[in-house]
Amino acid sequence: MIENMHTNGASRNNQTFSTEYENEEGLDLRKVVDKMIRYWYLFVIFIGGGLACAWLYMRYSTPSYKISAKVIVQDDKKNSSLPGAEILQQLEIFSNKSNVDNEVEILKSRSLMEKVVRDLDLNVSYFVEGRVKKTEQFVRLPLRLKWLYIKDTLNQANYVIDILADNKLSLSTRGIQRDAAWNDTFHLPEGIVKIERNELYPVTSQEYQITVTSIDYAVGRYQKLLDVSIPNKQASTINLSLTNTIPEKGEMILNKLLENYLNASVEDKNRIVDSTISFIDNRLGIVTTELTSVEKDIEQFKQSNQLADLSEQSKLLVSNTSDNMKQLTEQQVRLNVVESLEQYMRDEQNARRVVPSSLIVQDPTFLGIVEKYNALLLERERLLMSNTESNPVVKNMDLQLSGLRADLRNNLASLKQGIQVSINELQRNTGSITQKIREVPGKERIFLDYSRQQAVKQELYLFLLKKREESAISKSSNIAIARVVDSGKSDPFPFKPKGTLIYIIGFIAGVVIPSIWIYLQGLLGRRISNKQDILNNTPVPILAEIGHNKEKELIVVGRESRTPIAEQFRAIRTNLQFILSGEGDKVVMLTSSMSGEGKSFVATNLAAVLSLSGKKVLLMEMDLRKPKISEMLEFNNSVGFSTYVIGKSTLEEIIKPSGISDKLWLIPSGPIPPNPAELLLLDKTNRLFAHLRTLFDYIIVDTAPIGLVTDAQLLGRFADATLYLVRQGYTYKQQLNITKDLYQHRKMPKINLIVNDVKTGAGYGYGYGYGYGYGYGYGNDQPPKKGLFKKSRKPVTK
């Protein structure tokens, strides 16, 4: 019963130790900072390297500049002054897009960019080799490649032009080298080219590298670099931006694009005027011929009838019929014009030509249909620049054009019918007057008929001349639909790379990379590096920690010793009182997972520190397979436990003074037996331990690693407590599963962990209370080291 009470007490002590260690863990900012300070040199190196890489990137990267321009478009929809226009736009009764949206698509069109590429030869790039990289040149070039002929589609071709002495040069590409002079013509696989000299700029390099791409590739490339947007839907402005590594080149591209765009807008308007003038010129030729014919008939009539003047009666009749004749003449003129337009509309050759709109101003309905027809026809031609006639939009426009053309013909027919009715009515009125002048001589009546024909033709001739002048004036006054507000201008500084951002990224990378390395080192490391690694892998409590032995001596504990590691062994001696709390508890066994974890070192010094308290202590070297204690203490290992259990030695012969303390004795392992496990199972081993309990106050048993052989488990039945050695940076995390199994299945008595070889450097999590506070007041030669954020502690006394 007493033994059970002791066991329960020890278990509570173990739980106390475990709880204390668990409470210490968590997010400890001091540990994180200390660990980073431990690797300060890594941060210095990587931050310096990151900033150096940022500087090199800024030094040798090619900067890109942003070139911007702005145009304003005359938008009839947005500038409409009709009442209720805003309401109609909000209700979206009409589905037509605004002029601004249409102009944006025109500015993005491939045909417009292709014209810019051809005008500026953007498919040819010139490079000069520098000390580190090639740089492109565009404006200040001493030479130009003028392509007299170039293939439509070609792969990228690279040329090298070496400028030699005496105005000679050499052109080489893909194994072809040709020597020539300026302005010579070369026949190359890509086409025919002429090398021209630009005298405005001097030759700054002896070698120029030239890259030639296809027109299609260059057009696609610059279309991707161009951005056209509408900044405000309430305004009719368009913003254009282009990115390029050469500011002057980008400005020239953007300005040339705007120039071609404005010229195309004016050309569209001039085409309508030119079509009207061409129609009028054609009609003038016909009317002039007819008027000349009538005038010749009048001349012949007067000559043949010897008529010098009209009679007074004829004057009177003419004056009476002047009003009817005037109205009849006007209607006949209109009828003639309508018939001409009707003939023009029936001609299938004019199906895709604009309809003259300035000949009949009296009928607003007809003018509206003509204007709509011409606008739709121009929109169709503009779409055909980038689409085919099979495009659904183009087909839809064809259907609309057919419908509008039918409406024009119907309107002309209705207009012609109305004019004909008016003429018939006027002719009936004229017939009544004609009846009255039958008495007039027939010759004079014939003369009046000629005069009437002359008046009609002359009126028509004057009308056509007037309209031609009006069309010519309107052509000279045509302006583009848009106006340039801001021409292309580059930003003063490149928009990429951004220097501040690059340096920030370099600095962050210099901090993040070593931080990740430190984190992964702890996360993916296979060996134990800190206390949390132990707590995460085993429930066995940690009894104590032993620092790194820098002196490389076996015995670090002495009566006058005040070193930190000596104080740590004294702390183990104190903690053992809580474990060996039962009456008769005195056997402490030390084991580990594998060789090299410091069992012999800890066992020897633990025995030494116990003997310093005045207790009789026995140190047993029970690692029968690889004994080390006797070797380190320079003992003769010819007799020992192995010779005792087989009866070749007596107990008095194997118990030897250790030479460390007069209270410490040693039982060596003896010669290495062939069957260590069988020796431990002998009954004589049981009697030996029972007898030794009566002779000594403490018995420290150094055993073989439990992770390799079963010797420690066989000796576990004789022990009252088990100290399991774990070495920082040496023991594998997976080996802690052995301690977990021993603890949970109670295979070893009162098992506790001792963490050996703890480095007291920052970031490891050990050494709190064991490596920093001791030495004050004990005569320690070396002052205790303090890390950053370390608080001074009071001296610990026994």
TrEMBL record:
MF-aspect GO terms: non-membrane spanning protein tyrosine kinase activity
Protein name: non-specific protein-tyrosine kinase
Subcellular location: Cell inner membrane
Principal place of residence: membrane
Key words of the record: ATP-binding, Cell inner membrane, Cell membrane, Kinase, Membrane, Nucleotide-binding, Transferase, Transmembrane, Transmembrane helix, Tyrosine-protein kinase
Alphabetical list of InterPro entries matching this protein: AAA_dom, Bact_polysacc_biosynth/exp, GNVR, LPS_length_determ_N, P-loop_NTPase, Wzc-like_C
SUPFAM superfamilies: P-loop containing nucleoside triphosphate hydrolases
Keyword check for Transferase: yes
Domain Polysaccharide chain length determinant N-terminal: 26-120
Family the UniProt entry places it in: Belongs to the CpsD/CapB family. Belongs to the etk/wzc family.
Enzyme type, top EC level: transferase
Membrane topology: Multi-pass membrane protein
Domain AAA: 586-714
Recorded catalytic activity of this chain's protein: L-tyrosyl-[protein] + ATP = O-phospho-L-tyrosyl-[protein] + ADP + H(+)
Domain of life where this protein originates: Bacteria
The species this protein was found in: Chitinophaga rhizophila
Record domain Tyrosine-protein kinase G-rich: where: 448-518
Positions of transmembrane segments: 39-58, 501-520
EC number: 2.7.10.2
